[in-house]
Amino acid sequence: MTETTTLYEQLGGEAAVNAAVDIFYRKVLSDHRINRFFDDVDMAKQAAKQKAFLTMAFGGPHNYTGEDMRKGHAHLVKLGLDDSHFDAVIENLGATLVELNVPQELIAQVAAIGESTRNDVLGR
Amino acid sequence: MSLKTIKLNDREIACQEDDSVLDALLRDNIDIPNNCRKGVCQSCMIRSLDNAPPAASQKGLTDVLQHQNYFLACLCYPEQDMTISLNKPKDFFTETTVIDKKLLNSDMLLLTLKCSTPLDYYAGQFVNLKRHDGLQRSYSIANNHLLNPDSLTFHIRKLKDGLFSEWAYQELAVGDTLDISDPQGLCYYLPNQLDQNLMLIGTGSGLAPLLGIISEALHQGHRGDIHLFHGSREIEGLYLIEEMQQLTQQYQNFYYTPCLSSETLANGFAKGRAHDVAMSNIPSLKDWRIYLCGHPDMVHQAKRQAFLKGSAIQNIYADAFHVGTASVK
Hints:
The structure holds two protein chains of two kinds. Chain A is mainly alpha-helical. Chain A has helices at 7-11, 13-30, 43-57, 66-78, 83-99, 104-115, 118-121.
């Protein structure tokens, strides 16, 4: 049975993304290690991007390519975005899912998808 | 299901069964921004000019966007023929006549215009006022369309070296005509949640759209609390103080806090920037609707503060006033 159910479906699909996006974004904006990177962004646009990112990390439908990730973060890499900041985002992602009572094995899968973008995000 | 026709300006585009509006437009080489094609990025958002679009194509849009028949082209499988627009309302103008002009304080002008035909607007939206030589500025509508369907009021602040405001003060006279664009912007009141608490924060002439929103909310019988915070550096920057105080007497659910950020303290005024005062006054903004109008820095900071205080992003409505350029949503 579980073989035919995708990660995205197990997590609860779009409803789960909607539940997670505000919690995740609040954590990121409250996190002093990384919130300066979000000082100048338009919040509504950023929330849409967070939703697209979470949809991807949840194994859902997305059009993100490694190239998009590189282009989207290149200006932040110039400002000093590095592994420690990436770690902080992944940590906030995990904490969001814990708060939503997502089982640990699914959190690990989400974190792994998030992790797979590290080199593109950091422009390596 | 069968072939549907999509009208765009003077073109007719065929939308095949199983094709989205985005597919049909792209097939006809119409340049429309798009990215994810799955309803997430919202870059292909356009507007229906006749019928309400299918509900599935409005998924994730704020209630005011849905109300104005905006939809996502990539999620829209037409159920009937549609007329759509990729243009913005700023491209359409109507002639109005100045019917009143008076001062609210030493540098705030109350201008009232009458439209030859009633304009479809909502309090809190803005229009571009256009002088005959083409000079344009954006101003928010300060009154309520339910009470005055064919007249519009604006608060025009006198700006040092402000081309338009100087002209409006010195030369524009009752009886003159002035062109205005179609109303724009999504920072307005919708009577869909009468019990929701509202927080409105404005600096300077940011009071104008908030006044319209408050007037409409009270007119619609809004039952939730309505908290207005109006801020300026000095007391001279505030206006309509007595009128707002009277309104608190008249409506139990309306609260007004004038705020001064300068060092001088005056009786009856809160000390501090309006958004800081507002945020420290109210412990949680969960399920509140927030309206922010005025200085871009205030709007930017207050958006984040409101979100971190528990307000959902789609419940934060903002209009940042950029001096000398068009008002930008």
